[in-house]
Amino acid sequence: MLLTITTTARPATDLGRLLRKHPDRVQRFEQSFGAAWVFYPEATEERCTAALLLEVDPVRLARAHGRGSGDASLKQYVNDRPYAGSSLLAVALGKVYSTARTGVSEERPELAAAAIPLEIAVPSVPCKGGPELVRELFAPLGWEVEAEAVPLPGFDADSKHVKVRLRGTMRLAEALSQLYVLLPVLDDAKHYWVDIGEVDKLVRSGGDWLAAHPRRGLITRRYLAHRSAYERAALTRLAEAEGAEAALETPVEEEAPAASEEAAERSMPLHRIRIGAVLAALRDSGAASVLDLGCGSGKLLAELLKEQQFTKVTGVDVSSRALDMAERALHLDRMPERRSQRLTLAQGSVVYRDKRFAGHDAAVLMEVIEHLDPGRIAAMERVVFGEARPRTVVVTTPNVEHNTRYGLGGHEFRHDDHRFEWDRAQFAAWAGAAAERYGYRVRIEGIGVDDPETGAPTQMGVFDRD
Amino acid sequence: MTDPTTNAVPEGTAPPAIPAAEGREPIDVAVPAMSLVVLVGVSGSGKSTFAARHFKPTQVIASDYCRGLVSDDESDQTATSEAFALLHHIVGVRLRRGLLTVVDATNVQPKARAELIKTAKERHVLVDAIVLDVEPSIAAERNRARPDRDFGEAVVRRHHRDLKRSLKGLKKEGFRRVHVLKGAEEVAAARIVLEKSWQDRTEETGPFDLIGDVHGCRAELESLLTELGWAIERDGEGRAVGAAHPEGRKAVFVGDLVDRGPDTPGVLRLVMGMVRAGNALSVCGNHEHKLVKHLSGRKVGVTHGLAESLEQLDKEDEAFRAEARSFMDGLVSHYLLDGGRLVVAHAGLKEEYHGRASGKVRAFALWGDTTGETDEFGLPVRLPWAEDYRGEATVVYGHTPVVDPEWVNNTICLDTGCCFGGRLTALRYPERELVSVAAEQEWYEPVRPLRPASIERDATTLDFEDVSGDRYLETALVGTVKVRAENAAAALEVMSRFAEDPRRVLYLPPTMAPVDASDVEGFLEHPAQAFAQYRGKAERVVCQEKHMGSRAVALVCRDPETARGRFGLDTGPAGAVLTRTGRAFFADDALTDALLTRVASAATASGLWERLETDWMLLDCELLPWSAKAQGLIEDQFASVAAAGLAALPAAVSALDAAAARGLDVADLAARTGTRLSNIERFAEAYQRYCWPTSGLDGVRLAPFQVLATEGANRADHRHDRHLELLDALVEADSTGTLMGTRRRFVTLGTDEEAAAADWWTELCAAGGEGMVVKPVLDGRPRLQPGLKVRGREYLRIIYGADYTDPQHLDRLRQRRLTHKRSQALREYALGIEALDLVAERAPLWRVHQLVFAILALESEPVDPRL
């Protein structure tokens, strides 16, 4: 809600000319969410500070947000937007200082073109990534960065807000454009208020500083990734009733955790290897119809549809959001009819008996069982092995022994939503017992590089019956 | 439908006036009340007129109409094949739903009729044909008068030839009866009479004594009837020849009266007497079926105790044998009793067969859902149909001997193997009490040892169809509650991914609506409105302290055996402590068990188990502190907001101070910013009051405020005085200090107790309390909000934002709409009451689950979360 820009370039009061806001006036600018004020707490020859203060009307904010978002969570009413240096601040900055941002000044063209000593302070920046990310984003641009986490009142912990102070010698226009882009990036929240098209343009044209930025990947990703917000509305309400927050996120695709995002980009595509192994098992089984339970965004479905052997492919997920993602990822709307006729997508649950599961030669539970509470495994067995009874069932799940290779400690799982991860003996014991109970045979294989000590990262059980 | 009556045509759809032929006696055409009626007649024979005259418009499906639907032209012959596809579809759906259906098409060709007969057979429905055999000349004459029938007389003649050729063999095609109306006069004189089916005894409302497989055990039957209070009537030789119950109860035998036991004739004599006198009904068992077959001279294997019956019957006279044969031959496959709420069939009956008639239905009723395979004892393998049963009607059956009768999805098997030395069992209906007498001896050696239960119970199997899609649930309090498919979809995900095992999720707490907005200055909510809202609806209310933690539902069992035996909880905690959305409160089962043990010990120490005559109870509670469950949410949502505000506002205040010192006019802005700073400080204080560290159970408090249900009793009524008194005893007996009492005040509405209670509320809130809940205290269950919350001024900052007390915000917030929230609260409450009823009466899990699932689904409706 507050951003101050200070310069010591003499005469410092010329800051007013660059910003086109007179140091002796208090100015108010109407915003969609309230008002922005510009005033100067200090204005001398030596040092001049322009303060941009937002008065956010939470009601107008909630209304603007509520419209069309379908979101009825408490968050739209009680949030940090009125206080934080978020995308709202970036929007106000962009508008109030729009002329200064162009870097063109009729009055002081040479000053606008010159790098001047600047100090920028924002007392509270919501930042996913903490003070470290603030440094990573601003230091490469030539700023001396002071970033300090704001404590959480009442808890012995840091909040996600960071007190930020930047010092450096920089063209004012450039500093403004950096703030305009990077404040929302730090926030990484759904910013309904920034015109995505404009930012997209900015990113693509690669402003001078952005093209060479070492974290440009993260910057563009955070900018462009967060566009949809409202699909999860019903679930969010339930999560709030629960007192839990992010736990409801659909565990759609997941991967072995990586030390950093860069590492993830380089890491072995285990999921490709896994899909390959599952496909091979299905091919060998001679199955013509396959039921993919917990299909997620449909990566396996896409591969199944490519092979003529699989004449009937059914993708089931308990999350309707996952199914929407699958529908988009598979381009169902423009899939040729001959192919789409082979595919069915349906919401369903592996702990509810379902007659639509019957009539398939094979069922796949790829990285699904570890998302079930151990107490519900018996219900899943009953539904899949007892009721649907396909000739073949393929089950994959992480091998927890391999976790040390990802640098995970003893009790750490590969994904927040995992309820358990089994070692090889536990998986074999469960698979053997389930096969026995329901009259199947089972063969167990490793997927991925077979580490001599820990075994492969993923384990697969292929069940079949006469 | 009761006695045969003429089929009433509803008002406003008066049939075209065709006068009944004068002076002619009406000709009764009797068709089954639930059946397919196929009209047969050439074009112009008057089928449509006949149908309109005798049946409701919706009962008549005409080929011309279907042709119109698929082509916009009723005479477009190119659309015929699609029109008939549609016709068969409609007919199929109607018959599946048990509706009388009349097909108005020429149906003069065997192929057309065969298709319809097949459709009916697939739905286990009888088919009658009514032939309108009108002279071709008259038909042709009528066609000429109609502009849309431009085909010539030749077509009519051809139709007529087809019809003539068909008439003789018509019955053999599969029609139950073929009614031929010869000539226009007979057609005009016809009168439709609906015949109730044999199975339909829905008018019999009991009370009933349903009796399991007797198998020739006459002595045991006499003992059982005596035990049940029947007076047995004897003939000169002292033989039981009938029985009557002083309270007019009716006996219903589930079949298999004969074979194996020592006195099949004696059993038949007694039962025949009872049936003859109208005191009993009996369905046919597979043993009667086989015995009749043998007595009729057909070849059957003399096994499974048939030899004994034959030997015993040989000693009877011919008249008795003839009577017995005719009695058994007349037994029907199953009965629908008590308005359709009770179905009796020898081997049980799945829902789609109730009240239906076909070979398949009869086979199912006599032998069960068999696969045609036999087990290691050479007995037929039977599928566990009862496990899949989802019908509303109670199904009572026998056929498969079990040690103890057990309710499975509203069905029960009463065959307790009397002839094998077990017991003879009866079920009192509607009381649902089991009464049995032991066999005097093992009369017949069982081929296979008795199984412990008819069906291996698998309560965890719930079906997707139990919960998916748009659902309509009946409640006593608010009638039908609709659950939308999208809300069900959200609930499916939560139930599948996060909720506890459904055997533990027997209830979820309904949401609670707040009071009307207050007009007291500075307050959004105030007790005065709560009292005003209940005035005139209740005389007395209770004001209960609202604990600020997380809502919890606790299933407390006296001991692990109860958890196992009563709820099937053989793994995990011996009970449950659940959140509002059905999750386990603690990730660690040991903590759940430890907390439950504390509650159970307190219940034992306070004598609550005995007082409530139960071994388990379901408690509505609040679990404290708030941070125990919601720490993540508090940090992310509330503390994070406070952090941002407490970092930014002081900086803003000092910047404004500096500007003011320079002489700039920022006074208003500075004042507003100062107020916001003090508001955010109060906000930060407000949530911190409800947070404190816990470790294991240390620091955890549980405040139970209502006993929801105990064995056989749904206790969720409005007598909060009694609830709180019971729970005071529980809290007092808790030696661990975990349980917490609930402070309360009772208020007689309209007296100065109201003002005193409002002061009390102010004190509670001033001491950091969340506020209170006002609930009516009364008997019965009127359609009334079960409670209204009145939240404290500072607490509401957490909900409405730090600055909500600013006059301009407060004025706007007072306009809040409560209609939807109230309706949601009432609907969820009504569903919860139904769920508790079912839990108390040991209903099948899937029925309880449907209701609990619906509550969760309703919770995902978009309602202002601040209410």
TrEMBL record, chain A:
Annotated family: Belongs to the methyltransferase superfamily. HEN1 family.
CDD domains the UniProt entry points to: AdoMet_MTases
Keywords: Magnesium, Metal-binding, Methyltransferase, RNA-binding, RNA-mediated gene silencing, S-adenosyl-L-methionine, Transferase
UniProt cross-references to PANTHER family, sorted A to Z: HEN1, SMALL RNA 2'-O-METHYLTRANSFERASE
Domain of life per record: Bacteria
A GO BP entry: regulatory ncRNA-mediated gene silencing
Organism of provenance: Glycomyces paridis
Protein name: Small RNA 2'-O-methyltransferase
Chain ranges of the Hen1 N-terminal domain: 1-239
Domain Methyltransferase type: 291-383
Enzymatic reactions: small RNA 3'-end nucleotide + S-adenosyl-L-methionine = small RNA 3'-end 2'-O-methylnucleotide + S-adenosyl-L-homocysteine + H(+)
Single annotated GO MF: RNA binding
Residues of the signal peptide: none
Cofactor: Mg(2+)
Enzyme Commission (EC) number: 2.1.1.386
Gene3D superfamilies linked to this entry: Hen1, N-terminal domain (3.30.1610.20), Vaccinia Virus protein VP39 (3.40.50.150)
